[in-house]
Amino acid sequence: MTEAGDATRRVDLSTGPALVIDDGVLMRARGVPYGSADRFASPTPPAPWAEPRALIRRGPVCPQLPSRLAFVTGPVTDGLQRSEDCQVLSVTAPSGADGLPVMVWFHGGAYVSGGGESPNYDPDALVTEGRVVVVTVSYRLGIFGYCTPLGVDEDNLGLRDQLLALRWVHDNIAAFGGDPQRVTLFGQSAGGDSVYSLMLSEAADGIYSRAIIQSAPLGMRDGRDAMRTAMRAAAAESLSDTDPFAADVERLHLAQTRSLIAARRFGAISGLSYAPILGVDPLPAAHEVTARIAHVARSVDLFVGSTKLDAAPFVELNQNASRLRALGPVGKVGARTAAAAMTRRVFSGPAERLARSWRADGGRASTYRLDWSPRDAPLGACHCMDLPLLLGTPGAWSSAPMLGPHPDPLDHRLAIQIRRLWTRFAHDGVPGLGAEKFRLDAVR
């Protein structure tokens, strides 16, 4: 029995037997190790175990500094253990599931914050309403997972973690009633960017067939080489008197902060300073991306989109935002105009272009835009507004400032509609959606 009194059942995984929660409605496995890795090294599958292992408690998330978007989402990973041994995932499935589509979630957080074990990403409603199996993945972040210091030989470690998690899903998801031949990748912000990176990687071929990209900053992927070099040098200088392989977490986070400061002089792309690096295993070189996308489009269905004002929080973070606010109502209009322009440049425009090129290459793609926001929401339909409509419970998002001042601000009928769209796509791909474009707003 678990601490909450729920019944447990045994499942047999590739690494050994496990005890998971099964309350007759949902089956859950929490904190499942899909890999292990030394610091700054590629992950490997976990060591097998012989005795049943209890997988009933949330696992750790990567060590991280406070999120810069806490003023939008509220706390997301508070109360969760921090550990460099963060190659864990959680599985939620309907009890008695058999051969259901699988959806694998990659969280956002600019590759420096967040974690798949967060209650904000619990997929209970998605699982029960849509009859799918959902896997939420945690992976290495920041200096531990991307843009490692000079002198470290390996990189793209967070992406390699994600690839190993997908391999775990392929090998084990049938034990939870999932169909390993019907796997949909989905993620928001850096999680959506992760989905795009996984599509670029040949190592992921054949272990998924559909992809949902939510509010990914696809307009910030180019022209990053000089910034990355400056970041790695700044981190190495910060660690010049210590061995980065032996430094404590606080010292590495100081080096990460120094690298973020070094990135600022490169302008807008510094908003996603840490990110997967083209030309570094397992990603192709920049000149190969177009051909790679054309290849993937022929076998993977795509659903991609953004919110109406995805960029609004990032306009607020800009040092000029305080000057706009000082102008009162006129400044508010100016901020919304700037947010709309940045959204088109970074989020919605690149998403629409990706969908067009996908179709031109012979693939199937649909797009969406979320226009809804609660009454008096301070930033409108901003970045992350889709999350409480899709994952978590209303209680998990109750402290999210983006939702405004009113109790129970969610449009629950819209939430059901969005979850239905997402899970229909997981079941049947683009044909299951029935349209090439969706505008998501209040259900009247």
UniProtKB/TrEMBL annotation:
Keyword Hydrolase: yes
The protein's name in its UniProt record: Carboxylic ester hydrolase
Family: Belongs to the type-B carboxylesterase/lipase family.
Keywords for the protein's UniProt record, in alphabetical order: Hydrolase
InterPro entries in UniProt: AB_hydrolase_fold, CarbesteraseB, Carboxylesterase_B_AS, Type-B_Carboxylest/Lipase
EC number from the UniProt entry: 3.1.1.-
One Gene Ontology molecular-function label: hydrolase activity
